[in-house]
Amino acid sequence: MENIVVTLENQIKTALDKFIATQNKELSKKFYINIERPKNSDHGDFATNIAFQVSKEYSVSPMQAAESISDFIDTSHLIERLEVTQPGFINLIINKQWIQSQVNQIREASFTFGDSNIGKDSKIQVEYVSVNPTGILHIGHARGAIIGNTISNVLSNNGFNVLDEYYLNDSGKQIDKFNQSVKIRYQQLFNINVDLPEDSYSGEDIIEIAKQIKDDHSDKFLDPNLDNELSSLAHNLIISKISHSLDQLDIRFDNWFSEKSLFNDGQFKKCLDEFEKQNLLINRDGAKWLQTTKLGEDKDNVILRSDSTPTYFATDIAYHFDKFLIRKFHQVINVWGADHQGQIPRLNSALSALNIDTKNLKFILVQMVRFKKGEISEKLSKRLGTAIPLNDLVEEIGADACRFMFLYRSHDSQLEFDLDLATSQSSENPVYSVQYAHARTCSILENAKNLEMDLNPSNLSSLNSSFEISLIHKMLDLYDVIEVVIKNLEPHHLAHYSTDLASEFHAFYQHCRVISEDPKETELMNARLQLVDATRIVLKKCLNLMGISAPEKM
Questions:
Q1: Which residues on adjacent β-strands are paired with residue 35?
Q2: What are the residues whose beta carbons fall under 8 Å from the beta carbon of 417, sequence distance 6 or more?
Q3: Which residue of 114, 162, 297, 312 is most buried, as measured by CB atoms within 10 A?
Q4: Peptide bond before residue 87 is cis, with ω within 30 degrees of 0
Q5: Pairing of strands 161-168, 123-127
Q6: Crossing angle of helices 375-384 and 390-397, rounded to 10°
Q7: What is the Cα–Cα distance from 377 to 305, expressed in whole angstroms?
Q8: For residues 124 and 161, is the Cβ–Cβ distance under 8 A?
Q9: Between helices 344-353 and 267-277, what is the axis angle to 10°?
């Protein structure tokens, strides 16, 4: 299907090329043709500022450049007319018949509407959540999980070959502590008098795992010779719990990557060997350091501690070595908490030393979430203090509200989550508004079907009201919104677009009667039903991309 912005860009480029051909001078550089929707609809449907760039090249005013370029713009098809306005904008008014025709174009494209092949099968890994497997997920983990998953959905629908991955920190001291905590809780269930060390994992989830092991295996693991088997069983159980929590949010990973494999498969050693070849390693204070000062950093960083265990920094290097040089991803996207921002420069420096192009490594830094005080937040906080399990949040407000509200603000902004608003059935609740709009389209179409009204493609020229035209324009904006999400890795634009589209549809519904049994209005009713059907498709497309259900009744 025709992407209106891309088509307009091509038409302006053609006009620009024709204008340049009339001059005695080629452009000294390539200009980016920017097509935007004016904030004031009186200034046309779209506008371009290309004349401001060109005017400097040819030493003329922006108005002169705009007038000259506009002479070469084709107004026989998509563009009906144009206006040059001070101080040099070219405003474009789209042909109304073309706009009307897009209703059937959307219906024919169905749920591929908005998709493109911009990815060209580029191999991308999106890594998110990756919480240490030492306990269940809590509400603080949800935002990054939903953002990462939504970005993956959008990329997958637009020609990228995406792998969703959870990195399991399944080696090191924190895992030893987890194993020890489960073992002690298990022993305590048999009235064995053993105290839990102060720095152990003491949550209810550890007790639940110990109880499950007891229920399934009785006293089998009191035998100290079976400690490794007990640890393996506990590890699998906690991963199963993490996976179940994510499944409630409709998040499923293609791969759970084991940190242990970096050592077993030799990636970690390969990194150390390469650093050694470049004389970047040094022994100091009983530990092994990577001399990142030689790579432009302010200080060196420990790679191996004095007890020979690797640091998080060291395993991060090996993990990204595996991503780029072993599995050969073209691009890697890491969804991290904002508190990890300081780790990025040193990681990039180390990877550059391994001949990895860090321009292909993107970071999405997710800010913290604060929950607005209210009835539900008070209820949740009384259950387990501040560490509220993710399962409890989803159970209380539902997966759809959870996903939408976490997506609604930009990831680099702190989020105040209003739990009471997320469950309210009002227009103030954005997810309710969007889902209700979709349900309303389904209800209208069902009523039309019961009345045996025709929904076959027909003359759409009767769609002339400002509410109808505005709704069509809003649907056509989806291509641009998806492009912005992909370019900036900012899925909140999709959530905002969805609420805007729902608002446009609600306004249309209030001002334009869709179903009438008056035979004089048959053609208009048919056209409006097709518009409703197109809106249903686009709303459902947006909800699907965000991993949110599209109810047909509410």
A1: 48
A2: 369, 370, 371, 372, 405, 406
A3: 114
A4: yes
A5: parallel
A6: 150
A7: 42
A8: yes
A9: 70
Give this prediction's pTM: 0.92
The burial class, CB within 10 Å (0-12 / 13-18 / 19+), for 501 is: buried
Task: Return the exposure string of 270-293: e unless at least 16 CB atoms fall within 10 Å of the residue's CB, then b.
Answer: bbbebbeeeebbeeeeeebbbbbe
DSSP 429: S
- Other Cβ atoms less than 10 A from the Cβ of 536: the count is 23
Residues with Cβ within 8 Å of residue 407, at least 6 apart in sequence: 146, 147, 150, 491, 492, 494, 495, 546
Domains and CATH numbers, the chain: 4-94 (3.30.1360.70), 100-118+427-545 (1.10.730.10)
Q: Which residue has the tokens 């206006």?
A: 83
pLDDT digits over 461-473, tens only?
Answer: 999 999 999 999 9
- For 271-319, the pLDDT digits (tens) are 999 999 999 999 999 999 999 999 999 999 999 999 999 999 999 999 9
d(CA 92, CA 70): 10
Determine contact, residues 38/47, Cβ cutoff 8 Å.
Answer: yes
Q: In which residue are the tokens 């197109």 written?
A: 534
Judge whether 84 and 21 are in contact, CB under 8 Å: no
Q: What's the token pair of residue 127?
A: 């890594």
